[in-house]
Structure formats: structure tokens, C-alpha cells
Specification:
Elements (H helix, E strand, L loop, with lengths): L5 E12 L2 E12 L3 E6 L5 H8 L7 E6 L2 E2 L5 H9 L1 E4 L11 H12 L4 H14 L15 H12 L6 E5 L7 H18 L2 E5 L3 H7 L2 E6 L2 E6 L1 H6 L3 H8 L16 H5 L7
The chain binds adenosine-5'-triphosphate.
Length: 272
């Protein structure tokens, strides 16, 4: 994705945990307001990309820029503010089990604002309404289905009207109907709140229904990217195997690979 004013930008980012390289000279841009998926094999560095965007880890080389700012130049206070303006929905979206639904959603509002209690109650009602759960304030997490719990976690994630949402495997463990509900809520909320969102997911079919753009990551690099239509139309064997979920194909599951995936497959770097 080439954009004139990117909201998120990686410039030649390399990242290693200790001495183990994870991301290599990674460059990409995401425009403001987009809902973007990052897909790729297990251990390819997708969650690490989210952690870099959140400023939880720093690259050894290159820049991670959000809204025009290089995160590595931010002070502690600025990084804190950056994170406060982000919403997270992670795998299984853990709720506080000893707090009611309403108190779960109110939690970030009480932590990060000085708003009066009545206004917080109204905001909780609005956020729960946005995920179709108005009236569920008094329920405890143990009384919720998995799909409902994920929606409460989503309401909590958007409580502070984030400008940036990070989703890490938001569909894991959901039945197909709940998965569809969450996916379309993510899309609807992104449009309604004008948020920029990055979603790490393995669910190709559902993601292609809702996202604006997809990056495919393998071995620390983006090896393909495009809009859902471009991805569906691609005849790259690697993408076809990924999209069709075929057990046999060019993707090697053995670890470690002796040579790079692109080289093995004769793929051009970055095509959809
Ligand atoms: N804190 C850490 N310290 C050391 N190594 C780590 C750490 N976190 C992740 N790794 C390793 O870095 C690699 C990339 O991890 P990451 O979680 O970014 O991959 P991923 O693409 O999100 O994988 P998955 O789809 O399996 O969740 C993995 O091999 C993982 O074992």
C-alpha cells in the first residue's frame, strides 16, 4: 500500500529477540482509517509487528512511525499517551472475571479519565449498545457465551475511542456464527469510529470479507500484499495454498528452512 500520508509506517525495520532475527528490513505503510490484516505462518513475526506498533518493543534498526512520529524518539510520557489512544483485542480477549460486564467496560474509563460516574455509565451503555449487548451490564463474565465475552472485550477495547486498534487473533475459539458477528462488528466499528486497525489473523475467508488490504508475512518479510480482490485473483501457488488451506503445496512446514521461502518458491518479492 503506497499512501501519501501513512498513519502507520515501517521503514527498513529489523527486529531480533536477543540474537534471533525475527523481522528483516521490513517496510510498509498503512493509510489512516484502513482495516488491514497481517497473515502468515506460525512464528513469522506477526504479533511482533503489533508489539512494535504498540511501542512495547523497539526495532534494532529502522523506524516504526505512527501518525508521523518515530516511536523510538518518544518520551515515556508520550509512549504512554500513544498506548492510551490505542485499543487492543487479543486472543481470547480476557475479561476481569470478578468484575461485571459493565465494570469491565468502565475499567479503562475509570483508569484513564476523570469523568463523572454518571457519564461513565452512559458511555458504558453506548459501548455495549455498539456491540449489541445493551442491557447486559450486570452479568458476570461466567454467565456469558464465548461470543458474548468477545463482544464485551471489544466494547472495552473501544471505550476510550481509540484512534488505532490492534487485533491479535480476534476470532480464535469462536463458533462460526459468533466469528461472523465479531468480524462484522470489527468492520462496522472501524468505519463508524474512523479508526485505523491492524489485525493479525489466520482466518483468511472471513478476513477477506472485511479488510481493506492484506499483508502476507513469511520469515520476517512481506512476501505478498494486496486488496482482497487482488488476493483472491492471485495465482501465486503460495497464496493459493494459504487461501485454500490446502495441506499440500509450496509452503514448507519443516523448521528451520535451509533457504528463504521466496527463493524456494521462485516468488517475486511483494506481489499479490
Ligand atoms: N518475548 C520473546 N522472546 C523471545 N522470542 C520470542 C518472544 N516472543 C516471540 N518470540 C519468537 O519470535 C518468533 C515470532 O513470534 P511472533 O509471536 O511474532 O510470531 P507470529 O507470527 O505472531 O506467530 P503465531 O501465528 O504462531 O502467533 C517466534 O518464533 C517466537 O517464538
Amino acid at each position: 500500500m503506497n499512501v501519501t500520508e501513512p498513519f502507520i509506517e515501517f521503514r527498513d525495520v529489523s527486529f531480533a529477540y536477543n540474537d534471533r532475527p525475527i523481522l528483516k528490513d521490513l517496510s510498509f505503510q498503512i493509510a489512516r482509517g484502513q482495516l488491514v490484516a497481517i497473515m502468515g505462518g506460525s512464528g513469522s513475526g506477526k504479533t511482533t509487528m503489533l508489539r512494535l506498533i504498540a511501542g512495547q518493543v523497539r526495532p534494532q534498526k529502522g523506524q516504526v512511525r505512527v501518525d508521523g512520529r518515530d516511536l523510538s524518539t518518544m518520551s515515556h510520557a508520550e509512549l504512554y499517551e500513544h498506548r492510551r489512544r490505542m485499543g487492543f483485542l487479543f486472543q481470547f480477549g480476557a475479561l476481569f472475571t470478578d468484575l461485571s460486564v459493565g465494570d469491565n467496560v468502565a475499567f479503562p474509563l475509570r483508569e484513564h479519565t476523570d469523568l463523572p460516574a454518571r457519564l461513565i455509565d452512559d458511555l458504558v451503555t453506548l459501548k455495549l449498545n455498539a456491540v449489541g449487548l445493551r442491557g447486559a451490564e450486570k452479568l458476570m463474565p461466567s454467565e456469558l457465551s464465548g461470543g458474548m465475552a468477545r463482544r464485551v472485550a471489544l466494547a472495552r477495547a473501544i471505550a476510550l475511542d481509540p484512534r488505532l486498534m490492534l487485533y491479535d487473533e480476534p476470532f480464535t475459539g469462536l463458533d462460526p456464527i459468533s466469528l461472523g458477528v465479531i468480524a462484522h462488528l470489527i468492520k462496522k466499528l472501524n468505519d463508524a469510529l474512523d479508526t485505523t486497525a491492524v489485525m493479525v489473523t489466520h482466518d483468511v475467508t472471513k478476513s477477506l470479507e472485511i479488510v481493506d488490504y492484506v499483508f502476507f508475512v513469511a520469515q520476517g518479510r512481506i512476501i505478498a500484499e494486496g486488496t482482497p480482490d487482488q488476493v483472491r485473483a492471485s495465482d501465486s501457488p503460495w497464496l493459493r495454498q494459504f487461501i485454500d488451506g490446502a495441506p499440500e503445496g509450496p509452503v514448507h512446514f519443516a523448521y528451520p528452512a535451509a533457504s528463504s521461502l521466496e527463493a524456494d518458491l521462485g516468488l517475486e518479492v511483494r506481489h499479490a
